[in-house]
Amino acid sequence: MQGELAEILAEYEGEKGALIPILQKVQGKFGYLSEKAVSEIAKFSRMSESEIFGVASFYAQFYFARRGEHTVKVCLGTACHVRGGERILDEVKRELGIESGGTTEDYKFSLERVACFGSCALAPVMVIDKNVYGRMTIAKAKDILAEYH
Amino acid sequence: MVISQETKIINLAIDGQPVKTKEGTTVLESAQQAGIYIPTLCYHHSLTPSGSCRMCIVEIEGMRGFSTACTTPAIEGMVVKTNTPQLQELRRDILELILSEHPYACLICDRKEHCEPFHITLRKQAETTGCTMCPKNGRCELQKVVDYVGLTEIRLAPSRREAPILKDSPFFDRDYNLCILCGRCIQVCQEVRGIGAIAFTYRGSRTLPGTAFDKSLQDSGCQFCGACVDICPTAALTERSGRWRGLPERSVITTCPYCGVGCQLSLEIKGNRILRTVPVMENSVNSGQACVKGRFGITEFVHHPQRLTMPLIRKNGKLVEASWEEALDLVTEKLASYKGDEFAFIASGKCTNEENYLAQKFTRTVMATNNIDTSARLCHAPTVAGLAQAFGSSATTNSISEIRSAACILVVGSNTSSTHPVIALEIKRAVQNGGKLIVADPRDIELCRYADIWLSHSPGTDVALLMGMMRVIFDEGLADLAFIKEYCENFDAFKKSLKNFNLDSVEKVTCVPGDKIAEAARLYATYKPASIIYGTGITQHSHGTDNVLALANLAMLTGNIGKPSTGVNPLSGQNNVQGACDMGALPDVYTAYQSVDNPDIQKKFEIAWGCSLSASPGLAVTEIRDAIYKGEVKAIYLMGGNPVLSEPDAKHAQEALNKLEFLVVQDIFLSETAQLADVVLPAASFAEKDGTFTNTERRIQRIRKAIEPAGNSKPDWWIICQIAGRLGGKGFSFEHPSQIMSEIASLTPSYGGVSYQRLEEGAIQWPCPDDAHPGTSILHAGKFARGKGKFSPLIYKSPCELPDKEYPLVLTTGSSLYHFRTGTMTRKITGLNAIEPEGVIEINPVDACPLKISDGSKVKVVSRRGEVIARAKVTEKSPPTVVFMTSHFAESAVNILTNPVLDPVSKTPELKVCAIRIEEAQEL
Ligand code: SF4
Ligand code: SF4
Ligand code: SF4
Ligand code: SF4
Ligand code: FES
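That is the input. Now the predicted structure with FE2/S2 (inorganic) cluster docked in place:
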């Protein structure tokens, strides 16, 4: 990992104020920002680890623990909520054996709850990676997850 | 930063009151200057205003809405209102929001005055649920603001953060349930300390000051300076010591007893006990900052149960308690038979000027010998010798407060963040202000993080490195020839000696790439003013004086001397190393470096002291050992030192002390050396006596008696006077150190204008020849003290002991931030021991790997002189083939290993380089 990280950092040599792009690139590569990565980024940008972490943890897009291969997002916006989003979430939790925000032990799945996807017409909605699944039912959720196993 | 020559005065009106202020001042500062209160929470005068709390809003005529006074500059003709009903209403709204997340019951209770007396015991509960149970009660800024805006009711639903109280610092707790998110702690840690151990972490309602991955403070780079604690307006950050003892009854301003920075500290006292020691804001040395040692490392040692409280006398091989009468009589009787060169006095850079003055006066007048020296021999003597030779004055040329304005700083042989933490802040400030930083140090020290160039040269190759830089400067036409011509001499001889230092050969010797050296040379020569800061990494070598001369050459070559933010600035290790030398606690000079072999000066002192004096210089500390072996020195009076641990080849040093016929030690603790003494005299600590220390920038500062001495301990000056008097000495009937200072002033040209009366008005930097003289912040301005600055031709000499087959690694030594010297004081501090419990040997993975040494394993370190066991710390901080140890730990006493070979000029030992090997230690 050290080498790949160094490669990314090298691209930004001499650039000021590139912290967010660096964080994005690093997360893009490794899936999350590890302690080691934050420490290297801190050294590179001559800031402290806490400062880097402070900036990163301000944004929802950054993760600090290894993520699952697939990110499952269940929508609990008003429309989804009214149409039983909560039950879909419960089912996914049960199926994967994790809470929302968690990652399965085999690092296959991470689970998140989100406020609204803007696909209210399809409510309730579940999103896996970039694929949107609408009009979810408990049974459907099970089947779809199985496709990713 | 450029300070404009003429600051314009502007007029404004605040609450109908006409106010005059300087242009560039904010509305808030203008109001404060005029004595008008505006409530604030996030503002602090040592920080950049963030304008985040909005408590300081004011109305400004002609401006729409409300402005935050802390961020709004005052403008000519401005009409400001600070206290309208509408403003107060708005402030109440903001406060309500803040308080909905803070225990507020006591804050708004209309019977709070009546409640107070009944809560004395409730305070001790761990959780703070209201002011009456809060350690900050009475000093809290939030309380003050709530009172001012008159909040009586909170309409919002209260919420408690349920944040766990973090106890990961040994000195303070973090209870973020009391945090008002003002950000001051974060700002001070980043802006002022340059560390950034804490930052606002997470989002929205979860936002709190925190660390990366919620790691412990120590793992986040915290240095436990306490700046965040001191700046926190609430009790979110509170010191544990004295926490439940309530408010102090009085405070006494004094000088920190640790390093040569000489931070001004306020001792907060209740009864005869120091509750805490906080840095003083209004002074030019430390402006409200300190380090962990001064901030958290004092109270416990002053009040330590192991303090010596009674004299001890050796009877049947054991040290037993005795009365002062008995002990003093014994010392007198013994010393009477060793008058002359059989006697030697070892004075101390820890004791006051007055005490060191008396020590040398006693030695010279009563004991009739010049055998007086100090611990300064082990660090400062090459500076004394080198700077006197080059410039004519043996001290730091410029002042601490100038550092921040330097355009370039060269730090060489000084791990400033550990040894002189508050000076490191100034260096970081200079970098923030756009200055360039060059660090020359074998190890990856903290300052490297801020440096533009780091030269990792091999230990002991400083002369080559510096001469190489000078060769580049000269060859590239970057030398200030006009300056050299007008103010310096011996340049041609020096120029010739540059011949031997072409970059290729320098690269070979120093192991630093030539282009890096050239780059550093150009930076230093072109960014002016440039300042040189150095420490024991320069002096503790067998050619330490040459190292100092090289730095003096470098400064003269570029004209970087005699001007603000320039100069050659040695950092003296102990609080009063400078003063001890100034006071003539040296074998060859009286006060202010007046030679003992100069007949005129001898005459002057003979008249003043009313006795005849010896014109032959005495022995240096480092020569005394041999003299003991030869039977020439038989009795030693040791004041406040611990040579058993601090001298090189410590085993030998200890054997020598054992050979003495009589050893009297005066100290606050039973140090490793005191345990060998025939008589131990208990000394009062710095907090228990009056006196002066002279810091590394020649600033003479008071220490003040704050509490009564522990037990029967007595100030060192009193003890010397007693012994001198009993031995028939004249001129020792002093009742107070101020009288001693009058005598010093009368005999010491550079201290001529110093008196306790004047020191009450403020510290003075010597030279201060007379009462009317303001003191001197910059030496050699306009003219060198010796007339012309003298260049010295130099040749490179390698360290005396180089690695070989048998001893393949180079051991270099240094200091930690958390301990001091031989640890006599700091190892008594629980918190410091918790942070750094033992000495380690730092070793690069490249060297550790083949030896199968893993991080944390115990190893045996062997040199030609002895061996010690220490725990290995495998780290890239030390370069390959160089290992590093600190000198604070008796259990792994590094000086058992070090080489006692001396610099021939200054007699300072080569503590910084010796050859060692590492073996696997048998598990103990
Ligand atoms: S921090 Fe201040 S306002 Fe809060 S409980 Fe303590 S004294 Fe009261
Ligand atoms: S103690 Fe000092 S270093 Fe540590 S967090 Fe506070 S300000 Fe920063
Ligand atoms: S801990 Fe103190 S200084 Fe830091 S943000 Fe909270 S209240 Fe302000
Ligand atoms: S920097 Fe030096 S003088 Fe200041 S508090 Fe620390 S040890 Fe004391
Ligand atoms: S004090 Fe001005 S905004 Fe906080």
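Chain A has a mean pLDDT of 88.
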